[in-house]
Amino acid sequence: MPPTPQPDELNVADLTAVLEDFTRMFIRLPAVQRLSFTTLSVLHTLAGRGPKRLTELAAGEQVTQPAITQMVTKLERDGLVERLPDPSDRRAVLVRLTEAGAAIVHARRADRMAHLADLTGALTPAERAAIAAALPALARMSELHEHPRR
């Protein structure tokens, strides 16, 4: 049995459970543009990280190359992404978000923000302050995941 953490220590099991519950709630908040989770993840990835190769998208979304190719083909047909030649390798293509795809991402973010404003409005000032104080550490954890130290 692991030792009981001291008050100033982080209990990773508690963090995991809370983040899982929060993530499940958060991804279901928007009521606009109900698309599959993977489809929305691709759109959000392209919005936040710019054009990507199909291989990068497949790895990031944890799907097969044929699955991401099929998804990108559908998104392209729907006008949400476009394929462009990769300037660094003429044999490869980059997938880029279109204005219509970006509009979906922005609408979903605005809807989430409205829902979160309601939810945070129901918290005490101390609870809101605790969340605000945790934001830099959560952002740093995301950064460490994206750019691990070597």
Tell me, what's the shape? globular
How are the strands of the largest sheet arranged? 1-3-2
Strand content is: 5-15%
Instruction: State the distance separating the first and last CA atoms.
Output: 32 Å
Helix content class: 55-70%
* Overall pLDDT confidence: 90
The number of distinct β-strands equals 3
Assembly level:
single chain
Series of H and E elements: HHEHHEEHH
Report Rg.
Answer: 19 Å
- Describe the main β-sheet briefly: 3 strands, antiparallel
**Which structural class is indicated by helix and strand composition?**
mainly alpha
The low-confidence parts are: none
Total of helices: 6
Task: Please give the structural blueprint.
Elements: H1 12-27, H2 37-49, E1 52-53, H3 54-61, H4 65-77, E2 81-86, E3 89-97, H5 99-121, H6 125-146
Antiparallel strand pairs: 1-3, 2-3
Helix pairs in contact: 2-5, 3-4
Description:
The structure is a single chain. With 150 residues, the chain is mostly helical. α2 (37-49) packs across α5 and α3 packs across α4 (65-77). The chain contains six helices and three strands; from the N terminus they run ααβααββαα. Strands 1-3-2 form a three-stranded antiparallel sheet. The two termini are 32 Å apart. Helix content is 63%, strand content 11%.
